[in-house]
Specification:
heterodimer, A: mainly alpha, two-stranded antiparallel ribbon, B: mainly alpha, 23 helices, 67% helix
């Protein structure tokens, strides 16, 4: 496998990683901590929204993020022809 | 059948199951022993990882911590789950591609240095041994509370069980018992939660119940809880953070990267067949963990309002909490309170001699609450509740049948034993594979290495049992240390090993040592040198939490930053990593060509 392809593959990987990390940061440190006081003015059923993100929502998003990442990485692997057999 | 008999039956049956699995899953090769032969299905591995990860603390203590801290407890929920996103993306797939048996082996090979490998072994041993002490004491506590035997008898029994499946089965035995242990612990955790949620909100799903109305009040459960606790002088439940915003931030980061850097969790991902499996397996692990972690806040909040409702009859109708007849008469208290009073985890002291239980925050600075309490003739809080009761007494509070209580006992033991086994494997493989084979006797045959692994495992179990029986005075503060060390040494070293091709041996070693040093320096400043009382040196760090108000528990984040910075600077002024290492890193980055993990240095 030539180096150019590997470099492009790694760049695509890092792009996906950055995207996932931004969402990871926003739901936990953003919605769950920094903006929690603000979001608590909104309610999700009986939950203040900031509190919900901190104790429920962020965890659900984390799960979704890992599966999204695994799926997208599979696509990238095949696109650059570096997938396992 | 009485409770004791049912509990013995349940715990006995679960132990018989673990031993049966151990017999079936004996380890015949080093590959079996270190990585379960490398053929574990990603969903199966996810389940085993969940049991490996969720310890006695997660099962017994976490809901109680959240119950006490309210919103502040979110640092544990986010910190101990968010780390899996990092693990899935930054570490697990690449370490799986690397295809070796242990974490120090990666660090040693990547940084072409037995010195780096040895530093990694030391960090691993300190983090894992401190962590395993807590599991052993957890086993003792569960035994003494539920089975009516002494804590030390409990620890001996626990050691014997772990011995059987960990020594003979290695990772293979541990993997399949962890799956059984996950089932036991998750059923034991969710059944009482479902009942208490149904009881309080009419919704059987605790995650939804927490966002529902408290039955018979027309007010949402959390709003009601906020009103009641603030009226009684406690902090508002849904908004009070754990320290400053900065500390909350650092604490969460520290727990997240500490989670991702704990070796006993990382090695679980060496057992799946492919790189793609390692990615999805982390997702499955978090699914299984999330079932407990999203239930815990519901259990915490519901148990809290239930307790207030039990001791103060004005809570439910929303009438005057300070009315004399609202407080529960001590002689009318429910049976479960009597039972837990015996253990000393629940204490009542009738300060104003009115025969009733007044439960409020007598240290409140809220003048209105102080005035109300004074007018009502309250002379101080009369009820103290150990947070561990929240999970342990939940089935009794919800009036569930004896078999549910027995199940909780088996669940607590499953949580402690599964984590202990994972830690013991990380400890023993770092000794037999990294120190014996890697550094001291490189020519050792596979058969002898397997034997060395089993002997190290047996020795590690005896050591863990000894420390569990004679817990050093510092045991309580040490889990924070385990996370701090994993966060400040192992996580950055692995990450730089993958994401920087040029990071070299001197940089990595200097970084790990610097990270380890600042964390130990700061923690010891607060808790004493090697946790010996009287040797604290708070003056040197500017007083308690002197570094921008960061608590020692949250300091792993600072340690990681120091590690990254030192490693970067040192690597800039020393020779960059040789070409063959840079090529190795390129190889790790692409999935193709992965093969089952092996111990060799091919």
């Amino acid at each position: 496998m030539e180096n150019g392809n590997n470099d492009a593959y790694w760049k695509a990987t890092l792009r996906l990683l950055a995207k996932v990390l931004v969402i990871w940061f926003l739901v936990s440190y953003g919605a769950g901590i920094l903006f929690a006081p603000l979001l608590n003015n909104i309610h999700l059923g009986g939950y203040p929204l900031g509190f919900w993100f901190a104790q429920q929502g962020s965890i659900y998003v984390f799960v979704a993020l890992i599966f999204y990442y695994a799926k997208k990485m599979g696509d990238i692997d095949r696109e650059f022809d570096v997938h396992e057999d | 059948m009485d409770l004791q008999t049912v509990t013995y039956l349940f715990v006995g049956a679960s132990f018989a199951l673990y031993i049966g699995i151990a017999y079936w899953a004996r380890a015949r090769s080093t590959s079996d022993f270190y990585v379960a032969g490398g053929g574990v299905h990603p969903v199966t591995n996810g389940m085993a990882t969940a049991a490996d990860w969720m310890s006695a603390a997660s099962f017994i203590s976490m809901a109680g911590l959240i119950s006490n801290m309210g919103y502040g407890g979110s640092v544990f929920l986010m910190g101990w789950t968010g780390g899996y996103v990092l693990l899935a993306m930054l570490l697990a797939p690449y370490l799986r591609k690397f295809g070796k048996f242990t974490v120090p082996q990666f660090i040693g090979d990547r940084f072409y240095s037995n010195g780096a490998r040895t530093v990694a072994v030391i960090c691993l041993l300190v983090a894992s041994i401190t962590y395993v002490i807590g599991q052993m004491t957890g086993v003792g506590v569960a035994f003494s509370r539920f089975l009516g035997v002494s804590a030390s008898t409990g620890i001996y029994v626990g050691m014997a069980i772990v011995f059987i499946y960990a020594v003979f089965g290695g990772m293979k035995g541990i993997t399949y018992t962890q799956i059984a242990q996950y089932m036991v612990l998750i059923v034991a955790y969710t059944i009482p939660a479902i009942f208490i949620s149904l009881n309080l909100t009419g919704n059987p799903i605790p995650q939804l119940g927490l966002g529902s109305d408290l039955t018979g009040t027309g007010t949402s459960l959390l709003t009601k809880l906020d009103m009641v606790v603030t009226d009684l002088g406690f902090n508002q439940y849904t908004t009070t953070p754990a320290g400053s915003m900065l500390n909350t931030f650092f604490y969460t980061v520290s727990l997240m990267i500490g989670t991702a850097g704990l070796p006993h969790v990382i090695v679980r991902f060496f057992t799946v067949p492919t790189v793609a499996d390692a990615r999805s397996s982390a997702g499955w692990a978090l699914v299984f963990i999330a079932i407990l972690y999203t239930t815990a806040p519901a259990v915490g909040a519901m148990a809290k309002i239930n307790l207030h409702r039990t001791v103060n009859s004005a809570v439910q109708p929303g009438t005057d909490l300070f009315a004399p007849e609202a407080s529960l008469k001590h002689e009318d208290r429910p049976d479960w309170m009597k039972r837990w009073e015996v253990t000393g985890l629940l204490k009542f002291e009738d300060k104003n001699k009115d025969g009733r239980i007044q439960y409020y925050n007598d240290k409140t600075t809220n003048p209105a609450v102080q005035a109300n309490a004074k007018a009502a003739g309250w002379q101080g809080n009369e009820l103290s509740v150990n947070p561990d009761i929240i999970v342990l007494a939940n089935p009794e509070i919800a009036l569930l049948p004896n078999w549910v209580i027995a199940l909780v006992a088996a669940g607590g033991l499953a949580a402690a034993l599964s984590t202990a086994a994972g830690l013991l494997l990380a400890i023993s493989s770092s000794i037999s594979h990294d120190l014996i084979k890697g550094v001291f006797v490189p020519g050792i045959s596979e058969k002898k290495e397997l034997l060395a692994g089993k002997i190290s495992m047996a020795a590690a179990i005896v050591l863990a049992g000894y420390l569990g029986l004679n817990p050093p005075g510092f045991a309580a503060g040490t889990v924070a240390l385990a996370f701090g060390i994993a966060a400040s040494t192992i996580f950055p070293a692995i990450m730089m090993g993958i994401f920087s091709k040029k990071m070299n041996n001197t940089g990595a070693i200097a970084g790990m040592l610097a990270g380890l040093f600042v964390v130990l320096f700061y923690v010891f400043a607060h808790k004493g040198i090697l946790f010996i009382k009287g040797t604290e040196y708070l003056g040197l760090v500017g007083g308690a939490n002197g570094f921008f108000g960061i608590t020692p528990e949250a300091f792993g984040t600072v340690g990681a930053m120091v590690n990254f910075a030192v490693a970067y600077l040192v690597s800039k002024v020393s020779a960059e990593a040789p070409v063959y290492i840079q090529q190795m890193v390129e190889g790790i980055r692409v999935p193709r060509g992965s093969s089952a993990a092996t111990g060799g240095h091919a």
